Amino acid sequence: MVVLFGESWKAEGQESSAFGDVDGELIGSILDGGVMSEDARIVEEASNRNIGSFNPDMFMEGVKNFHNVKNLYGERLLRLLTGFDSDYLEQNVGIPEFRKELLDQIRERVKRLKSEGIVDTSGNITSKGEDVAIISAFVEELDRLEPKGLQGEVLQKKVEHYGSRDFSRIFKKGDRYRDVNIRDTIKTVLRRGRKNIISDDLRVSPRISKGSIMIIYGLDSSASMKGDKLLMGKRAGIALAYKAIKRKDKVGVIVFSDKVHISESPTLDMGAVLKSFSGAHAFRETNFVSLFDKCSELFPIVSGVTKHLVIISDAVPTSGDEPEKLTLSSAAVLANRGVTISVIGINLDNKGIDFSRKVADVGNGRFYLANSAGDIDSIVLQDYYEVARS
Hey, which CATH number is domain 211-389, 3.30.70.100, 2.120.10.30, 3.40.50.410, 1.10.3380.30? Predict the structure, then answer.
């Protein structure tokens, strides 16, 4: 069972969840997969396509040029708004009776969004609407992740006085007698044909604990990320946060384009992580330097902690003078501060692949190529497991 707004969603000292304006009834509808779940998907799709408001009359005026409307809204949002797929709309939108039916249906849907507070009286998406959308995305992502289990998870191991045991070795000076593995010791004695135990037979199993990891998820929200790339980028971030926080690893978020627009320090507060994704919109250019500078601010100066940045992007840097040179220089500075950097590139050309590899090499991390937006979440989790293993 997932507790959405209980104590587990509050940061230390925080009195309320990050989604205090979303009431329990709406959350219940999302969890039940009801009407609210569908409306949340409408807002999620619109937000990722930079559509900030719903005006049925303007929609019907624009639909006269269906090609433009399809490019603006995308097939999925058109289907959610109208109840028809894009091919059917294109074939029938010129029929007066169908246009009237379509307008009435969209008006009714927008009226419902207004009654729920998801859009305001002018049809503009509210902050509550964006919150509901990201909560719905979280629930859907959990439904998709849970059947997969936790395959691939590993532990970074270090000896501790408390923790689990999963191996044994020969006893040596300095080991604690309470760590003696009686079963393996007896097996050793029997294998050697002895009746009595001597010190050379002793086997110990030092207790181990998972190494501490802090991850910042750097999501490119430049104009080229509009649509499925941003949608799946957010959802991959949700998957990472869920897996990592469940293992007590802290996750932070930086959403950037020409500058940093949203940032959240590494935290165990899942609600805060989700809140940071809810306001992400695609526009402008790509500036990796701003991302690296913000990372330097957000990562604390502590020892004994793995600090890792994973970047999701579909482009080379385009903001500023000599952007590629400045990016590599900035990445080197961050790496010298003990931060590893991985890059997940979406549909990159050869130039983009070459540049992204350089960033990952400078950052002592890994480069991954995602051939489609749908590959992002599995690659993000793969990178997390690799960090945990190292």
Answer: 3.40.50.410
